[in-house]
Write a structure and sequence with these properties.
It is a single chain. With 493 residues, the protein is an alpha/beta fold. Helix content is 38%, strand content 22%. The strands form seven sheets. The chain has a seven-stranded mixed beta sheet, with helices on both faces. It has a six-stranded mixed beta sheet with strand order 10-9-8-11-12-24, with helices on both faces. Helix 2 crosses helix 6, helix 3 crosses helix 4 and helix 4 packs parallel to helix 5. Bound molecules: nicotinamide-adenine-dinucleotide.
Length: 493
């Protein structure tokens, strides 16, 4: 057990909780305690929010900062993360469980996010237009103010970077609450922000429970915007809490995304991506291809190959170079996923592989689950409709293009989706009918910082990343300049 106590970062200082309390953070591959982290109180969150407010509002403060200065600072942050890239990757793997090759990819993504937004904030923005009057009309983008960011645990570094970088680039100040399960790389990120020379109060890190810190962020009247990534139920609660003070909201929520494979698809490519779609990052991916929709005529050979390959996936500690799939994030989450497996069996779904906790060969203290595949014969089954957020694939058959589209769109979610076919026109037809924000043709999962990320339906509100993600951290102001400075003459006297 580690005696290390990690502090939080408020108003430019590393501080303990006002209650003196901490909470343990574990390695899900071993159950080992990696560190004890400061457990913030509501008062700590309020202090961080007040610091962010002051840093935004004060004369000459961050709210009035120049884009070029912000860009230089963010570029330094990127360099500092990059200099510690392997340490970041090791930290995310130990804290989250994901294989090292995935953590390394995440770190390079986070570095790129800081560079992307450092570049973007100095580029042309706004509009001018011709209006039918002696007026010069223009539109400028301005920061929203204080951003409260609340995040999830499945991409610990990159998910926080993707809120911090655009929020600061656009000139906002920030209070960030990372997931309780994975705060360690976020603490390192704030070390980089401090080292880069961020003024006190501009970015604040508050570690603690969602029901206290997250609740305060979503209600506090000094917060102008909440940027949230997490479950749909929590998103709904945050939306309700934020309503009283009419906060701007970005919500990145859950998914149950369809991966549609037609009989004319390249067989091995489609099998390969069907595996990658659900078993990458242990299936703890909001956009995971958790519903495989397979054209009936290739069902048998496809499933035989899919199950054969799923059973060969090497599950283990993410620090081991051979590991292809790591543990689930916590014992509680493993239990939740196992509950879904019981629900699937009770509903009459056919278990084709996996379905069990793995405990042999050094895995006994971790939260490992075998890659699991169910065949579902009814669309109203809970395992078809609800997000499991683990390595559990549910497969359904379809007989026509229309049926594939109907099934694909039949959940409350609309985050992502893919289609595999060698018929280009069919691929376009089907993808255009998917009610989802992130889609792929003949691939699954590649996403880029340059492109917008977000969902339709109950998968969220707004977009992160790319120029859309930057705009989500700005207000739009119109300015009308009178070019003929004289009284209007509207009133007679
Ligand atoms: P969660 O909603 O329980 O927690 C997310 C964050 O919200 C945590 O920091 C938590 O402490 C905080 N929180 C909890 N209750 C709160 C409250 N009442 N008020 C304010 N904050 C509160 O999420 P989870 O279940 O741990 O994460 C999994 C979910 O996240 C899945 O549904 C997944 O699809 C979703 N997710 C979505 C995206 C996306 O980009 N759309 C990305 C990753 C994860």
């Amino acid at each position: 057990m580690s005696d290390q106590v990690k502090k939080m970062f408020i108003d430019g200082e590393w501080v303990a909780s006002s209650s003196g309390e901490t909470f343990p953070v574990r390695n899900p591959a071993t159950g080992e305690v990696l560190a004890h982290v400061t457990k913030a109180t509501r008062e700590d969150a309020q202090r961080a929010i007040a610091a962010a407010r002051r840093a935004f509002d004060e004369p000459g403060g961050w709210g009035e900062s120049k884009a070029r200065d912000r860009a230089e600072l963010l570029w330094r942050v990127a360099d500092l993360i990059e200099a510690r890239a392997e340490e970041f990757a090791q930290t995310d793997t130990r804290n989250n469980g994901k294989p090292l090759r995935e953590s390394r990819y995440d770190v390079s993504d986070a570095v790129n996010q800081f560079r992307y937004y450092a570049g973007l904030c100095t580029k042309p923005q706004g509009q001018t237009y011709d209006v039918p009057d002696e007026i010069q009309a223009m539109v400028v983008r301005e920061p929203i103010g204080v951003v409260g960011a609340i995040t999830c645990w499945n991409y610990p570094l990159v998910m926080n970077a993707q809120k911090v970088a655009p929020a600061l680039a656009a000139g906002n100040t920030l209070v960030l609450k990372p997931a309780d399960l994975t705060p360690l790389s976020t603490i390192m990120l704030f070390e980089c922000l401090e080292q880069a020379g961020l003024p006190a109060g501009v970015a604040n890190l508050v570690t603690g429970p969602g029901s206290v810190v997250g609740d305060e962020i979503s209600k506090n009247e000094l917060v102008d915007k909440v940027a949230f990534t997490g479950g749909t139920e929590t998103g709904i609660a945050i939306m309700k809490n934020a309503a009283d003070t009419v906060k701007k909201l970005s919500l990145e929520l859950g998914g149950k995304s369809p991966n549609i494979v037609f009989a004319d698809a390249d067989f091995e490519t489609a099998v390969d991506y069907a595996l990658f779609a659900i078993f990458a990052n242990q299936g703890e991916v909001c956009s995971a291809g958790s519903r495989l929709l397979l054209e009936e005529s290739i069902y048998e050979p496809f499933m035989a190959r899919l199950v054969e390959r799923a059973q060969k996936i090497t599950v283990g500690d993410g620090v081991n170079p051979e590991t292809e799939m790591g543990p689930l994030i916590s014992e509680a989450h493993l239990e939740r996923v196992l509950d879904y497996i019981r629900i699937g069996l009770d509903e009459g779904a056919r278990l084709l592989c996996g379905g069990k906790r793995l405990t042999g060969g050094g895995l006994e203290n971790g939260y490992f689950l075998a890659p699991t595949i169910f065949e579902a014969h009814r669309n109203d089954m809970r395992i078809v409709q609800e997000e499991i957020f683990g390595p559990v694939l549910v497969v359904q058959k379809f007989r026509s293009e229309e049926e594939a589209i109907r099934l694909a769109n039949s959940t409350k979610y609309g985050l992502a989706g893919a289609v595999f076919t060698n018929d280009g026109a069919k691929a376009q037809r089907v993808i255009r009918k998917l009610r989802a924000g992130i889609t792929w043709i003949n691939t699954y999962h590649p996403t880029f910082n340059e492109a917008p990320w977000g969902g339709y339906k109950q998968s969220g509100i707004g977009r992160e990343l790319g120029t859309y993600g930057y705009e989500a951290y700005t207000e739009v102001k119109q300015i009308n300049v009178n070019l003929k400075v004289q009284p209007s003459g509207w009133f007679r006297n």
